[in-house]
Automatic annotation (TrEMBL):
Pfam families: TrmO_N. SUPFAM superfamilies: YaeB-like. PANTHER family: TRNA (ADENINE(37)-N6)-METHYLTRANSFERASE. One of its GO terms (molecular function) is methyltransferase activity. It comes from Thermococcus profundus. The keyword RNA-binding does not apply. This is tRNA-Thr(GGU) m(6)t(6)A37 methyltransferase TsaA. Residues 8-132 form the TsaA-like domain. Belongs to the tRNA methyltransferase O family.
Length: 217
């Protein structure tokens, strides 16, 4: 079978200072605008190209001993984290500790200094660690609302007439995200949260409430 090649360009390079035990990503100047929106403390998915494991012979290796240990039974590379693969792409989940210009300082990883960076994506628990609750297509992303570091995503209100038999405890109403973490609130929990927040608001000092005005709800 013939395959059409396609082009992947590095967006940066990994810098691994083993002396300082420090790892960073040097984003190339032409891609620095893509850093905007990343923050210190964020978790990201880091895709690397293991260039030292590249080559026609290495790409043809389809079975290996996991972790290079001959005592481990041979397995297909898709069932391992071996650097030998048809396409030597490596995937890491790391945290950004600080950002200095075009440099992202991250958790230490075992990749070689100078390894090309293929892509950087935010780690989102709702997407990267799926759970059997609200499906992505059921979320009303257009109405998502940020409050501080919280992102609140409501469920779409379409076809609610089909849910007459679903109890408030069973109906998932929205997702709350903070960084990569996410949790789902049922309709019952949402009502309890609203009542609690109303009580907190009512107990604010009068001077503060006068400046805020009455809640719209």
């Amino acid at each position: 079978m013939d395959f059409e090649p396609f082009k992947i360009v590095p967006v940066g390079y990994l810098r691994n200072d083993e002396r300082l035990h420090e790892t960073s990503i040097e984003v190339l100047p032409e891609f620095t605008e893509a850093i905007e929106g990343l923050r210190e403390g964020d978790w990201i998915k880091l895709l690397l190209w293991f260039h030292e494991s590249d080559g026609p012979e290495k790409r043809r290796i389809l079975k290996v001993h996991p972790r290079g240990n001959p005592r481990n039974p041979v397995r297909g590379v898709f069932a391992t984290r071996s650097p030998y693969r048809p396409n030597p792409v490596a995937l890491y989940t790391v945290q950004i500790h600080r950002i200095e210009g075009n440099m992202l300082y991250i958790d230490w990883i075992d990749a070689r200094d100078g390894t090309p960076v293929v892509d950087i994506k935010p780690f989102v628990e709702r997407l990267d660690c799926p759970f059997d609750e609200i499906e992505e297509r059921e979320l009303d992303l257009d109405k998502a609302f940020w409050i501080g570091k919280l992102r609140i995503i409501p469920r779409k209100s379409e076809h609610l007439d089909e849910l007459e038999e679903v109890s408030p405890e069973e109906y998932d109403s929205l997702i709350i995200e903070i960084g990569p973490k996410a949790t789902t609130l049922s309709a019952r929990e949402l009502k309890d949260l609203i009542n609690f927040l109303k009580e907190v608001y009512d107990n604010l000092p009068v001077e503060i409430k006068d400046r805020l005005g009455e809640p719209e709800c």
